[in-house]
Design a protein that fits this description.
Layout (H helix, E strand, L loop, with lengths): L1 E2 L3 E2 L1 H33 L21 H35 L3 H10 L5 H17 L6
Antiparallel strand pairs: 1-2
Helix pairs in contact: 1-2, 1-4, 3-4
Length: 139
């Protein structure tokens, strides 16, 4: 929020930086998890998660590629879950400091759960905050 006498909220810029960092980390991990780990771990031609009858046969069961996929989903999945909680806190704190309305806040938080769309949400939030700060909006 900009006040004519005092300028932009000095904490808003640092809140944006923290949010952008977490959004990028969580977004990259989610892309790797969903587009690399899950296919390598599960696309062996068998069923998946109890409700998908069969998957494309991209890897052989028990192969090194499948083991790598399982490691990615196990370790990156846990890391992503914990880091997503930190992302939610950073996004919420930014939303409070920037005086976002509930709808904008919820869309930003939910988009953080969707691979690739999370990067659009981060860009959208950054544009809004930079406009509040009176900074030029960059690419």
């Amino acid at each position: 929020m900009i006040d004519d006498d005092e300028g932009a909220d000095p904490g808003l810029s640092s809140a944006l930086t923290r949010y952008r960092f977490m959004a990028t980390v969580v977004g990259v991990l989610l892309v790797v998890l969903c587009l690399v780990g899950v296919p390598l771990a599960n696309f062996d031609g068998t069923g998946m998660w109890g409700f998908i009858g069969s998957t494309p046969e991209l890897v052989s069961p028990g192969s090194t590629a499948q083991e790598v996929g399982e490691a990615i989903t196990e370790y990156l999945g846990v890391a992503h879950g914990w880091l997503y909680m930190i992302f939610l806190v950073m996004a919420f704190l930014l939303a409070r400091r920037a005086y976002w309305d509930l709808r904008f806040t919820l869309v930003t938080l939910v988009c953080g759960t969707i691979p690739v769309l999370s990067f659009w949400a981060e860009h959208r939030a950054t544009e809004r905050v930079r406009a509040q700060l009176g900074e030029p909006v960059r690419g």
